Amino acid sequence: MPKKSCQVLLLSKEVKVLNLIRKEKNSYVEVAKIYSKNKSSICETVKKEKEIYASFAVAPQTAQVTATVRV
């Protein structure tokens, strides 16, 4: 059986996820069902909120993922 591939949310979709949670007051589970993700994936997106908004402000809206620098 082949391994599952990692499906990463696009940067624009991560911003939409944050808007659903923060502004529209949807629960993590509801948002996870909308995007077919696990609740833990949505929680990680919320934890990276500042990085996502910073990347979205700098990068064009067509950018696909946030870049994380590891030290």
Element layout with pairings:
Elements: H1 11-22, H2 28-35, H3 39-47, H4 49-58
Task: Write up what this structure looks like.
There is one protein chain. The protein is built from four helices and no strands. The relative contact order is 0.21. With 71 residues, the chain is an all-alpha fold. The mean pLDDT is 81. The longest helix is centred in the first third of the chain and has 12 residues, at 11-22.
What's the story with the biggest beta sheet?
A: none
The ordered string of helix (H) and strand (E) elements is HHHH
Helix content: 40-55%
Radius of gyration: 13 Å
Oligomer: single chain
Q: Mean of the pLDDT scores?
A: 81
Instruction: Give me the count of strands.
Output: 0
Q: Please indicate the percent range of residues in DSSP E strands (runs of 2 or more).
A: under 5%
Give the overall form. globular
Helix/strand-derived category reads: mainly alpha
